[in-house]
Design brief:
This protein is an alpha/beta fold. It has a 6-stranded mixed sheet, sandwiched between helices. The protein has a 6-stranded parallel sheet with strand order 11-10-9-12-13-14, sandwiched between helices. The chain has a two-stranded antiparallel sheet with strand order 7-8. Strand 2 and strand 3 form a beta hairpin. Helix 2 packs across helix 3, helix 9 packs across helix 10 and helix 10 crosses helix 11.
């Protein structure tokens, strides 16, 4: 196994490359900031076109984890790892064992969790080589169901709390009854969010690239199905992006007919300047890494042995954090994403 550190770290504390000929593993770990504690972030497996593309992704994602953990009030830093390869064709136990050995050599400065292209089962294989993985214990979820470590129920509940905060600030309402909410993406988080919204009395418009998921939402939740290309332009109170990133961009923002954007997707703004575009249109944006922090909160609570009551209180805290961001953004006349960044930096640079 060949492990090499990159000298030009920029704002990151540590960037480590790993190549293992025997298993075919090619991976990068980026540790952005550990001033609040060890770096925790997902291990992503993706068929990047080249190493530079993988490096740019892991640098961006690890930085985001620092900001997410700081605003969630966690004693954790930000890090991320990427495995270069197709998770459907290249993943095997030998590769995952090699990744576990690689993580172990970092001696706990970075702790891995599941991410795109990896699963709890994959992390459990890595755990045979290292203790520095998280989110793999079987236990009851916040919605009372049994699960295998998947934090998506907590992510969905946190987004629900955050969405309520946006409604409180923008619409001056304490309930969601009758509000029209367009949910883009019905994966593990998006569908669970829809369940919470339906229970709260919202009217759902849903879209997904998988027609079967849309049919399920229509049949079980009374949702209205909308084609993927039209969901962003529907006349609604709230647009909830829960699928791909960069959904808010020069082309899509002028199409929005919503008062609020609040959803689970990561990296919703194609560029930071798009936060200002939303502000100029009078659309309240709930910064993604704040509203979708439920997953990292769940994993942090599991690591520290906290019970479900504590976890639920921490998830509910997303509501107040967003209210604070919205109020400060209004006072200072700044976009909410800029204020969220500023508040996060205040927490991890002064820690």
């Amino acid at each position: 196994m060949e492990i090499v550190e990159q000298d030009n770290l920029s704002e990151h504390e540590r960037i480590v490359f790993c190549k293992d000929r025997e298993s075919g593993l090619k991976a990068i770990v980026a540790i952005h900031n550990t001033s609040r504690g060890p770096a925790l972030g997902g291990c992503r497996m993706w068929p990047y076109h080249n190493e530079d593309e993988a490096l740019q992704d892991v640098l961006r994602l690890s930085r985001g984890m620092t900001y997410k953990s700081a605003l969630a009030g966690l004693d954790l830093g930000g890090g991320k790892s990427v495995i270069i390869g197709d998770p459907h064709n290249d993943k095997n136990e030998r590769l995952l064992h090699a990744m576990g050995r690689f993580l172990n050599q970092l001696e706990g400065r970075y702790i891995a969790a599941e991410d795109s292209g990896t699963s709890v089962a994959d992390l459990k294989i890595m755990a045979e080589e290292t203790p520095f993985v998280a989110g793999i214990n079987d236990r009851a979820t916040v919605d009372g169901k049994w699960r295998n470590g998947d934090p998506s129920p907590s992510t969905a509940l946190g987004v629900f709390h955050g969405l309520r905060a946006a409604v409180k600030h923008q619409l001056q309402r304490d309930d969601l009854k009758g509000l029209r909410i367009a949910v883009q993406g019905l994966g593990n988080v998006g569908f669970r969010l829809c369940e919470h919204l339906r229970q709260a009395g919202a009217k759902l418009l849903v879209s997904d690239i998988d027609p079967e998921r849309m049919r399920t939402a229509v049949e079980k939740l009374g949702a209205t199905a909308v084609s993927p290309e039209k969901i962003i332009s529907r006349q609604v109170d709230i647009f909830a992006p829960c699928a791909l990133g960069a959904v808010l961009n020069d082309e899509s923002i002028p199409l929005l007919k919503a008062d609020i954007v609040a959803g689970a997707a990561n990296n919703q703004l194609a560029e930071e300047r798009h936060g200002a575009m939303l502000q100029q249109r009078g659309i309240l944006y709930a910064p993604d890494y704040v509203i979708n922090a439920g997953g990292i909160i769940d994993i942090a609570c599991e690591r520290q042995g906290f019970d479900d009551q504590y976890l639920n209180r921490q998830l509910a805290g997303i509501y107040q954090t967003l209210l604070d961001i919205f109020a400060r953004a209004e006072r200072e006349g700044q976009p909410t994403n800029i204020i969220a960044n500023r508040m996060a930096e205040e927490r991890f640079t002064l820690h």
